[in-house]
Input
Amino acid sequence: MVAYGSKLFMFGGYYGEALGDLYSFDTLTCSWKVEKVGGRSPYARFSHSMFVYKYFIGIIGGCPVTQHCQELTLLDMRSLVWKHVTLSSMDKALFVRSTANVVRDDLIMVGGGAACYAFGTKFSEPMKINLFPLLSLDDHDSSRKLGENEVIKEEEGMMENGNVLLLAPHVGTGSPQHPEMQSLNVENQTGQIDASSWVVKLEKKHAKLGKDILKKFGWLDLERKVYAQEDGLFISFPVTEKFCAIFSEDRFEVLSDHHPSKPFRAESLLLNDMSSSVALDILKEYGATKLPDELVQKRKACKSPLKIMTEAVASLIRQKGLSDKLLEQLPNRWERIGDIVVLPISSFRDPIWNSIGEELWPIIAESLNTCRLARQGRVAANGTRDSTLEILVGDNGWVDHRENGILYSFDATKCMFSWGNLSEKIRMASSDCTDAVIVDLFAGIGYFLLPFLVRAKAKLVYACEWNPHAIEALKRNLEANSVSDRCIVLEGDNQITAPKGVADRVCLGLLPSSEGSWLTAVRALRSNGGILHVHGNVKDTEVELWANHVSKSISEIARSEGHRWEVTIDHVEKVKWYAPHIRHLVADVKCRRI
Output
């Protein structure tokens, strides 16, 4: 949804299927309207991004990602006609739930895709799209392709075509191949200050009039900050490229109604009647000086952790006589678990890194400002799904992680931890579990049972778990959060250890499927029923099919156990994207005796 004028505009959405209508909401009359627009309508979608640029409303990305993901759709608000632009550089992008922000003439796309710490990530790379060429689209040019003659300029780290400039995709704050490249560079390729990085410096006593002049003529850059200099004696105003193009400090013309040796009085000339040439002369007479923006320069001077790491590692491998091509294996993203920085499994793949590990890993740790460094491994293919994280710098893998006011302690080299489940933990924490007895069939380190105990105030939780490393962490966490008196830990296979006929709720937090324990869950509920929280990984096109399967299966199991229950799906929670097109879902299954 975006705002244009006094209206809000909303396109698409999801209601059993992707939607393709454009609605407007008039904030003056508080009324909705289906907009009738000319041209080919955008394809139906959801989880997309919208933005406003000049007189265009833009739509990009969304689901389903297999269709027309390279298309940038624009609604010309002057003619109310849809226009479409194909961006061939987006063929690998996955702009689902991405942020879309317009900075001057650039559309900046960041984020989107799917993320799960335990099971891998699929992010879109950040991208910058120059929108200025789109202003040349005339009313008859409703469909256009940009990027047909695209070439990659390796030395600049940019992909360029005749119409749109795209920032070379990378994640983090730089690129291993081009560490000098930042998300938005300030200097141009000749090392000169960009026209958008200047300020005009005025004495404080002239600042009010100076600001009014700059604002009146659109010369004040509202996207940067005004700041004081020299103990507040001078004020620096960020100015636009337009101002830089016309302002020259050696330009001076005597105003017809006063002499330059006399101080100019603001009241002698009304601001509304002032011409731009007179305004420039006034600024010059008041001693306006054009200078580089100190704030921008300071930001530019700061080195990113990636750049620091790249420079340090480059120096080391050259000392060792190794190839610079090894720098391509440096990571451009990493995770933090507590105070441990975790490098992705794909980094430092060449075995030769291990030969210089004693010198290498401390350098990496220092550049990333951490005392403990680790590298992620694949999830162990065993029943307990152990972590295989490798500690590179540090004594052990025990970490403390606080989330939603709950402390989780665990050995990251033995236990997995998923950041993507936070929304579901918060949802469970907000449940009313007063006087409720809960059975958690896959307790782990306490992912969901701690929110039940600490936040939802459950009366008692039975915690079933068979991973000894997770059990050790679970017991620590129960003590640390002062809830051990309301939890009974049952070690071993839940099909053997789980209690029967005691639960008001049962949590089945196992992925990719918990179906093997549905019978155990039904047996754990009281005779009058209760609620099952059933987790599973499901294709995004099969959500309804999966929900029906859960409901039907639980109903049949209950009947086979002698229960006369009405089984319904109260809610299906979409927790996160587990992988492209695969959702982590939780079905709230209500079982009620009839």
Summary: Residues 115-120, 139-193, 250-269 have pLDDT under 50 and may be disordered. The CA atoms of residues 377 and 388 lie 5 Å apart. The two ends are 45 Å apart (CA to CA).
